[in-house]
Amino acid sequence: MFHPRSIAVVGISADMAKFWMRELYLDALVRSGYPGQIYLVNPKGGEMQGHPIYRTLSEVPGPVDHVVASIPARFTPALMEECCARGVRVVHMFASGFAETGVPDRIALQDRLVEIARRGNMRIIGPNCLGIYYPGGRIGLSPDFPGEAGPVGYLCQSGGNADFMVRLAVTRGLRFSKVVSYGNACDINECDLLDYYADDPETEVIAAYIEGITDGRRFARVLKRAAAAKPVVIFKGGYTEGGLRAAASHTGSLAGTDAIWEGVIRQAGAIRVYSIEEMVDMLVALLRMTPPEGPNTCVIGNGGGASVMATDEIERAGLRMALMPPEIRDELAGFIDLANSMLRNPIDAGPVTQQDGLNFLLSLGDRRPMEGLREAVLAGAKVGGDWQRLHDVLRRWPGLDLVVYQHGFDISPTPVDECGVAGSAGMMMRAASELRLPRAIVLHSMANDHSWQVTVELRALCADMGLPLFHSMRGAATAIRRLIDHHRAHPGWAPRPEPEENVAARVRAGRPDHKTGGPASEIAALLPGPARGQPPSPAP
Amino acid sequence: MFHPRSIAVVGISADMAKFWMRELYLDALVRSGYPGQIYLVNPKGGEMQGHPIYRTLSEVPGPVDHVVASIPARFTPALMEECCARGVRVVHMFASGFAETGVPDRIALQDRLVEIARRGNMRIIGPNCLGIYYPGGRIGLSPDFPGEAGPVGYLCQSGGNADFMVRLAVTRGLRFSKVVSYGNACDINECDLLDYYADDPETEVIAAYIEGITDGRRFARVLKRAAAAKPVVIFKGGYTEGGLRAAASHTGSLAGTDAIWEGVIRQAGAIRVYSIEEMVDMLVALLRMTPPEGPNTCVIGNGGGASVMATDEIERAGLRMALMPPEIRDELAGFIDLANSMLRNPIDAGPVTQQDGLNFLLSLGDRRPMEGLREAVLAGAKVGGDWQRLHDVLRRWPGLDLVVYQHGFDISPTPVDECGVAGSAGMMMRAASELRLPRAIVLHSMANDHSWQVTVELRALCADMGLPLFHSMRGAATAIRRLIDHHRAHPGWAPRPEPEENVAARVRAGRPDHKTGGPASEIAALLPGPARGQPPSPAP
Q1: Exposure of A343 in the CB half-sphere (CA atoms within 13 A)
Q2: From CA B273, how far away is CA B280, in angstroms rounded?
Q3: Residues 6+ apart with CB under 8 A from B150
Q4: Pair A431, A377: CB distance under 8 Å
Q5: B231 cis-preceded (ω within 30 degrees of 0)
Q6: Which are the contacts of A247, defined by CB distance < 8 A and separation ≥ 6?
């Protein structure tokens, strides 16, 4: 399934209305450097991008291992027979209009496909799905999916959720070993895929979006085995009564009651989430964080209101805001002004670290702040200054399990600019990367287009560096609580460290778009004499 | 407080490190056209942007109604005495370093300010806060806050949450009557402000971020009166045990236990939310939706997985996915293909409406799709076609209370482009604007920078048109459930319709940035012959 010597794309068409087929199943294969043979098939014949289009599968000259079928449902049995005759191993049935319609004829049609496949010793992926993305085997899919592989093995009953999850995970620096969108699961199903990923050496963590299952006992058994081998993060789509009906209508699934699902997932030791966003947060926690030994958290960041809200989110998720010991508070008070700060926990970092940020910006000369930040990161420069003093104090805090750094952008009274992003949030990010305790970074409160634009380089750099980046405190805290629970149940598991060259390659790649500011020297020019202090993050 | 004849900004400085003061308390007043006198005060003297800087408040030539004070805390009593002598009415104490520090000296310092204010018959806003934004009185604040007024009166104990909330609400088309960031509340407090907004004819809906209160009985009484007059949306910051401590450290608040808060808010008939995002969602629901009579919801949108997840979110929030009557299903099946659709509830709209979108794009000639969409909206053109047929059927669905339209962008197998945005989501948005039933629009799943960019014009247009726009199904469903409950408790309340000219002005203003595509004619050129069908929203 993952190593076909050749792929035939049946139903490809020069018709503009089917441009997506060319992009997904021809362009993506070519671009990703698929080493096997690609054959195109359409009754109209012709050619496309130098590839001849064969009128039937039978006309294809060489052996065909894998067929992608995007033709009307009624023609699929005939195609299956042809596949049978040609010795095809796997048919990915992109086509829809089968059991998911709930119409008896269509259910019967799907059953016929399975019969033919059994007879011809073939396997079917689908119908009603996107198929395979396997960067390691150079099987690309959507044009914006990355060429590099990573540790996440993903099985997804929905095509849309495969797309959304890959794209969202990429913005957080994650990559995939294999993704299979498997739709109606008339043959290859969630159990087969879980079983496979459990043993797959390329997969460190398994993610699953499942709407329904066909064999509950096997599923419970397979899930238990997989979750014992590596973390399995499950999002069960259709867990409410209406959702159950919707799942039946989408992929023809028997969705099961929520109580049964809860029991099966819990007993297996898998991790349950309730949205694609929560799934990505969980993967970030598993793959980018050292699991904390306990829930005692310190939050460091900017803004008083943000700090109060952060505390609520931390405790609501089942973590605990650690009480700051008086001697730690005294040490902090030794170098931090009382006004406009919060020397308890959470710690309002604005006034602590503004001088560090300003010194950094002043050191940049004519470079753009984000350019300077990227260079400093690449050069492995240490942060030093007040951040280092702060970390020195934190290290002496007994019983602290975890530090969460948070920076909100649109909580600033004046719109955020690149200097603020690089000098404040960027320095915080660099500091976080140096801390030895388990830590997470939350870059949040991008309310509008301006703050989105001006922060995009920083967010990309943070993800590229392999830091555990979240975009809401609620998301971070929920994932971290689940990480602690998972770590307690599976203390032996840890992801293999990512190869150094992968990280370096991602960081070097950079993000050339979205240059949002001028050179840092413009700030220096504006500063009257020796600069003391940036704008306070006002009205906390 | 809201109508000062003159404002003196004490502590303004040419120092770059205090540039924000100039932006907030000089530039913003000038730009917003503040009609009164502006005086600048700093012991160093000099001038700024043509305004002389007086060395002391006593030197100011004319009467001073309002003082903004950004000076170190230790100098504030002397300033208060000066204010007293000058007959100042209101002092906005931006400065921090008072009771919020928890240090006895600092608490005493704050008490002294109050004593002096009482003696001089002055009122204090703060300390430790951003102060007033009052577009109707031309008192601007942050440079990116809009000049137009709107129906939301907001009291916010945190400055950062005032900034974030205004910016987030603006992206959804909302505007404010008055915003007061009131910090430590040593004098003017949440009760005074609630009381004021309850009677304020410029305020239709009250939003409140409150960390703590000083007089529980008065608060319960005032809140009850305000919530009887108009909806009051409350976000209580610091509702967990750690959050309570954090609130005390941020604004020196007595935060109270969560059970007491829950009881007081419920008894008053106010609406409780748990984040700034939920607050904005709730304001959108109150101000942009007709309250549904019941929870029976139909969801229309693209993507099967998205539809399943939408159903879960709808039911989890306490709404109900209405069962589609067989006769409605039969009618839909009369013009919608079975394959790649979901003719139950949710309805997968992709295959229903693709021809409408394509026809629209083909009609645009050399215009950019988003330009064409904006023009069509301005001209009030009706959607017609399959959307109209779909709406005709929905109208005959008995007992349907609500339609939620959802469109996900990054669930598409190929990256979304401007044609897809305008032709699919844009047409859906136009259709939604024509439906007479209560309805909401959810534009979601912008995973990465590309989809953010290419959708930003559509989102702005949707908000500008005054449509009820949400960015997650969870957010929409939660707000709508609360809207139904509020409507049942207060059946007589409805916001006054927004003046036509306000809406027209917003829509005309447009969004000139972010042009993301070429002319629509490029598509037409690519189409071989009579175009049938857009790419299906594949693998549901």
Answers
A1: 24
A2: 10
A3: B135, B174, B175, B176, B177, B498
A4: no
A5: no
A6: A211, A212, A237, A238, A253, A255, B308
**Residue B514: pLDDT above 80?**
no
Distance between CA atoms of A93 and A96, rounded to whole angstroms? 8
Q: Rounded CA gap, A139 and A143, in Å?
A: 11
Cβ separation of B250 and A339 shorter than 8 Å?
no
Pick B408's closest partner by Cβ from A160, A275, A513.
A160
* Whether B20 and A448 lie within 8 Å, measured CB to CB: no
Residues 40-69 of A with CB under 8 A from B: none
- N- to C-terminal Cα separation, chain A: 56
Please check the confidence at residue B232 and state whether its pLDDT lies above 90.
Answer: yes
Residue B540's pLDDT is: 34
pLDDT at B533 over 80: no
Q: Which residue has the tokens 């018959």?
A: B121
**B503 HSE (CA, 13 A, CB side):** 13
Burial (0-12, 13-18, 19+ Cβ within 10 Å), A47: exposed
pLDDT tens per residue across span B346-366: 888 777 778 889 899 999 988
The strand order across the sheet containing A123-125 reads A47-48, A51-54, A37-41, A6-10, A66-69, A90-93, A123-125
User: B25, B163, B340: best mutation site toward chain A, by most A Cβ within 10 Å?
Assistant: B163
Is B155 in a helix, a strand, or coil?
strand
pLDDT in tens, A117-144: 999 999 999 999 999 999 999 999 998 9
Token duo for residue B420: 């897809």
Please, are residues A177 and A202 in contact by the beta-carbon 8 Å criterion? yes
Whether the CB-CB separation of A112 and A79 falls below 8 Å is answered with no
Residue range A273-293: average pLDDT?
A: 97
Cross-chain residue pair A243–B408, CB shorter than 8 Å: no
B73 interface with A at CB cutoff 8 Å: yes
Distance (Å) of CA A173 to CA A166, A430, B412: 11, 16, 21
CB contact under 8 A, B526 and A309: no
Residues comprising chain B, all counted: 540
Q: How far is B277 from chain A (nearest CA, A)?
A: 9
Contact call for A514 and B449, based on CB within 8 A? yes
Of the partner residues B170, B413, B526, the one whose CB lies closest to the CB of residue A142: B413
Radius of gyration of chain A (CA): 26
Residues in chain A closer than 8 A to B159 (CB atoms): 304-305, 411, 413, 538-540
Q: Residue A538 — pLDDT band, cuts 50, 70, 90?
A: very low
Question: Residues of B121-153 as b/e, b for ≥16 C-beta within 10 angstroms?
Answer: ebbbbbbbbbbbbbbebbbbbbebbbeebbbbb
Query: How far is B357 from chain A, CA to nearest CA, in Å?
Result: 13
Contact A240 B306 (CB under 8 A): no
Lowest-confidence pick of A377-391, B15-29, B514-528: B514-528
- A355 vs B: CB within 8 A: no
Chain B residues whose CB is inside 8 A of the A103 CB are: 338
Question: Measured between alpha carbons, how far is residue A150 from residues A33, A206, A479 in Å?
Answer: 17, 12, 20
* Cα–Cα distance for residue pair A133/A28, rounded to 1 Å: 10
> Residue A398 has which token pair?
């007994």
DSSP class of residue A217 equals H
From the CA of B171, how many Å to the nearest CA of chain A?
6
pLDDT in tens, B261-309: 999 999 999 999 999 999 999 999 999 999 999 999 999 998 889 989 9
Backbone CA torsion sign across A486, A489, A491, A497: negative
Q: How far is B3 from chain A (nearest CA, A)?
A: 22
Query: Cβ–Cβ of B414/A143 closer than 8 Å?
Result: yes
Strand order, beta sheet including A176-181: A131-133, A176-181, A152-156, A205-210, A232-236, A271-273
